[in-house]
Specification:
heterodimer, A: mainly alpha, 4 helices, globular, B: alpha+beta, Alpha-Beta Plaits, six-stranded antiparallel sheet, three-stranded antiparallel sheet, 19% strand
């Protein structure tokens, strides 16, 4: 787990230190990509906790979601419809659901552990 | 298996962190870009140059004073101090001042008189504008209707009357006296004012401005009120 957090810190510090900027008109795409990545991440954590984690699904989901979201946003810009809102909505809802599931699983685990300890 | 999962998570989190940081960088664009063109930069430069030369001349006078102090250290330091106080009082406008300058008479415009219109007081806004126009010239001392204008003098409306230094000025005709330091300066000011579009603004208020020819000797009154410097503090020495 600590390895993952180290990865996050490494990514953030690399991004901040190198001071990379993208043109402001692409900021939308990037924000959606971040959202998609977060969605995939929480989906992965949930799957891992539910013992149904699959490497291929996880990695392909990560890239596919990002591309789909960016594609939607791109299409939206060209059609004049804010389609990226659809992506934000979908990812947002899924994010909340996944986090809720993760919370429940963790709570269950915790109470179970407590019960076992008490029974012993 | 577990290790593999975490290595994947690490990878994904690394990418997320990177993207978030880039997004953060993008949103926090540099505060403001310098969009001035060459001309504006030149103006800025000339302003700074002027400031530079002013500071240099100030340094010159202070050096002179210092020199004077040094000279008179042996015989009479009191004398030098007195002189400094006197110069400072003169600069602050606390003494009567005589020198080359000119007079400006603000009077009701002939048209207004002919048509019998009410002559109103000159408005503070217009007066401030006019004073600012005059103050473009350096080393100017002026009095409006006998009220000496110093650095802290307010020009404002008090109960419907235009006041300078808190005292109401009269209705036109009234006189402004200006001491311009040198006669050339006074002449420059004369030409500048005569060509200045601000005189048209007086015409809107039914007033006309008569800028008299520069004279060798003009006297303006001393500032005759208490100087209120409650909010000033001595600068910290270095």
């Amino acid at each position: 787990m600590w390895l993952s957090i180290l990865g996050l810190i490494l990514g953030v510090s690399l991004g901040l230190l190198t001071d990379i900027r993208i043109p402001p008109e692409y900021a939308n795409y990037l924000s959606i990509a971040v959202l998609a990545a977060l969605d995939t991440l929480f989906g992965g954590i949930r799957a891992h906790l539910q013992q149904v984690y699959d490497d291929k699904v996880f990695v392909s989901g990560f890239f596919f979601n990002i591309m789909l979201a960016a594609g939607l946003a791109f299409l939206g810009v060209h059609l004049g419809v804010d389609l990226y809102l659809a992506a934000i909505f979908a990812f947002g809802v899924r994010l909340f659901q996944n986090i809720a599931v993760i919370r429940r699983i963790l709570l269950n685990k915790w109470t179970e552990k407590k019960e076992i300890r008490e029974s012993v | 298996m577990k290790k593999k999962v975490f290595s994947r998570f690490t990878m994904i989190l690394f990418v997320i962190g990177l993207m978030t940081a880039i997004q953060f960088n993008t949103i926090n664009e540099p505060d403001s870009r310098d969009t001035r063109d060459v001309w504006e930069i030149r103006q800025e430069l000339s302003r700074e140059k002027q400031l530079h030369s002013e500071l240099l001349s100030e340094i010159g006078t202070i050096d002179e004073t210092l020199e004077k102090y040094k000279e008179s250290e042996s015989d009479s330091p009191e004398q030098a101090l007195q002189e400094t106080v006197e110069t400072l009082r003169k600069e602050a406008g606390l003494t009567e001042l005589t020198g080359p300058g000119l007079r400006i008479v603000i009077e009701p415009s002939p048209e207004a008189v002919a048509t019998g219109q009410n002559i109103e007081q000159i408005s503070p806004a217009l007066l401030i504008r006019f004073v600012n126009e005059i103050n473009r010239f350096n080393a100017i001392d002026l009095a409006i209707d006998g009220k000496r204008l110093i650095n802290t003098s307010p020009i404002r409306d008090i109960n419907g009357r235009t006041t300078v230094n808190g005292e109401p000025i009269g209705t036109p005709p009234l006189e402004m006296t200006i001491v311009a330091g040198t006669f050339e300066n006074a002449e420059k000011l004369y030409n500048h004012l005569n060509a200045s579009p601000i005189l048209d603004n007086f015409y809107i208020d039914n007033l006309s401005v008569d800028v008299k020819r520069p004279q060798k000797k003009i006297t303006i009154e001393a500032y005759n009120e208490e100087l209120e410097l409650d909010h000033l503090k001595a600068a910290e020495g270095e």
